[in-house]
Design brief:
78% of the residues lie in helices and 0% in strands. The chain is an all-alpha fold. Helix 3 runs antiparallel to helix 8 and helix 8 packs parallel to helix 9. The protein is globular, with a radius of gyration of 22 Å. The N terminus is likely disordered. InterPro entries: MetI-like, MetI-like_sf.
Length: 269
């Protein structure tokens, strides 16, 4: 579950941006050619320029921005609750083997259950809106943080832990002074992975539930009207851009906060 944020060796930041821009430009050009040339019906694949123009136009639509705000609120609440649950639970399971053994079967049973499969049940029991979205987001987002926390604890330097124990420090103090700082970069990576999962669940739940507000609901409703493909794709562009911004912010924060960890890993390799 752990993930490395270090860029490929030999590739500068401008080079990475250039490659990314080239990929976006190629996709944009292919969509534009297919739409303009009539190779694909515009009702199924509008030209990229038309979709981009509509996405920009939506930035001035108050109703659309309200839907975006609803989705981001559900995303933020769900992710925050997942962090509050997963980090302490991961520390407990990763540092107390007896507890890990006792609950491991339950964790392995629940983890593979897709969150989208729980949407009908959640809608029936919890209704619509945040009351339904947030629990589903919490459920899906907990796993990356939980397992990265446990993985990070196992990565702690055993010599440092034994040294503290030799000086009379208890289990809690060893956890706070050695294990938790060592696990912090892995927890941050888990949060970054969970942030993407949370956004997917927020939008996906709104699309599949068929009621309520949010960016996903905007996309779902656009798909039910004639010539609504442009709005569907414009809403999808917004979802992708939001996800990209969130990931970029988290990656940069992670790299700055845990620069020592990257240097340590580079030195070890």
């Amino acid at each position: 579950m752990a993930d490395s944020t270090a860029p490929p060796r030999g590739l500068s930041r401008p080079g990475r941006w250039a490659r990314g821009a080239a990929g976006v430009a190629a996709l944009f050009l292919a969509s534009e050619i297919l739409g303009r040339a009539g190779i694909v019906d515009r009702s199924y694949l509008p030209p990229a320029s038309s979709v981009t123009a509509r996405a920009v136009e939506l930035a001035g639509d108050r109703e659309f921005l309200f839907n975006v705000r609803v989705t981001l609120t559900a995303w933020a609440l769900g992710l925050a609750i997942a962090i509050a649950i997963a980090v302490p639970l991961g520390l407990l399971l990763g540092s107390v083997p007896a507890v890990n053994t006792a609950v491991r079967a339950i964790v392995e049973f629940l983890r593979p259950i897709p969150s989208v499969a729980l949407i009908p049940l959640a809608g029936l029991l919890l209704g619509s809106g945040l009351a339904m979205e947030v629990p589903l987001i919490v459920y899906a987002s907990t796993w990356p943080i939980l397992f990265n926390t446990m993985y990070g604890l196992h990565d702690a330097d055993p010599t440092a832990k034994e040294t503290l124990r030799a000086f009379g420090f208890g289990r809690a103090q060893v956890l706070l002074r050695v294990s938790l700082p060592s696990a912090a970069p892995f927890i941050a990576t888990g949060v970054r992975l969970a942030a993407s999962v949370a956004l997917i669940l927020a939008v996906g739940t709104e699309i599949l539930s068929g009621f309520g507000d949010g960016l996903g609901m905007f996309i779902a409703q656009a798909g039910t009207v004639p010539d609504g493909t442009r709005d569907v794709l414009a809403g999808t562009v917004w979802a992708g851009c939001i996800g990209l911004v969130i990931d970029t912010v988290l990656v940069r924060t992670e790299n700055r906060a845990f620069r020592w960890h990257r240097a340590q890993r580079s030195g070890a390799s």
